[in-house]
Task: structure prediction
Amino acid sequence: MMQILSATDGFCLLSYSMKLDPWGEMARSLEALRAAFDDSYGASHGFLPASPASAECQRDTLAGTWGAHPVRDANIAPLSYVFVLFDHLDSLATLFRSPGGLMASHTLARSVLDIAVGPWYLLEPDIGERERVRRHMNVRLESLKEQSQFETGTTRTAIRDHAAERIAHITQAARAQGFEVRREGDRYKPPFLEPKIKTTTALVAEMIAPEEPTLGPLFWRLGSAVAHGQQHGITMFFEHADQQVDPTHGDTAAKFQVSSKDTALRCGGAPLAVIATLRRLFQQYGWDAVQLEGAIADVVNTWQAVAGVQPRKIPATFL
Result:
């Protein structure tokens, strides 16, 4: 049985899941995903004793000037990213229930992709404690180098000096532990422990759908077009009423509008990125994933229904 929704949406949805408005359903599914994380985090506040993360910490022999417990640091660090991700998803759900924010949802969705690649990359399973520390330190080096640019154009040096000191601590410990340090002394780019981190678009491609490597970057570029105010990003929201306002010059007026279907299609990378990250987090921390998998199924089913996408079009990773 099918149910036709309002003319402004202009598409059909399964009545069993879409008796409520599609915007509200997308928001509800994101909140259920948040609840699955909150319940698991609230029960443990970190990784469990029998988890892969705990096993790595027990083998930690990498202490040095970068920290006394670098393996633990590398396993705990992704949590802060996850809280930031959910702050953005909460805001996205709020926008879905708001009468405004037509374009802001796309900007938020792009930000989710940018943020998610960090913890997803750090939480890759079965890479071992040494590789996890190497990745964590590379992320730290990028952040410290960025901080060192805050005082550019001023006479202040306190932030730059602090960042330089922390960078030196990391590179010193890295050499002591046998890591190869590259690109030291570059004015703009950070040093890194070989090999360097992949680009955001390369990581997004692997995170969203490795079997369809163009899908992740497509989500990212659609969001970027809006976030950066590019012309093709703005015109995506034009309703082509083409009401003539200046016959002499041929000027016409177009109304900004977006449907829930278009939003689910263009912003779908955001929940998929969070799903991919949470699956790695739950595995590394040894958390029970029953509630999470139920929430994931709800998100995928809801968003594909709103988008009008057939189940076979969803990346196999998320079925």
Q: What stands out?
A: Residues 1-17 have pLDDT under 50 and may be disordered. Residues 22-44 form the longest helix (23 residues). The chain is about 60% helix and 10% strand. The two ends are 23 Å apart (CA to CA).
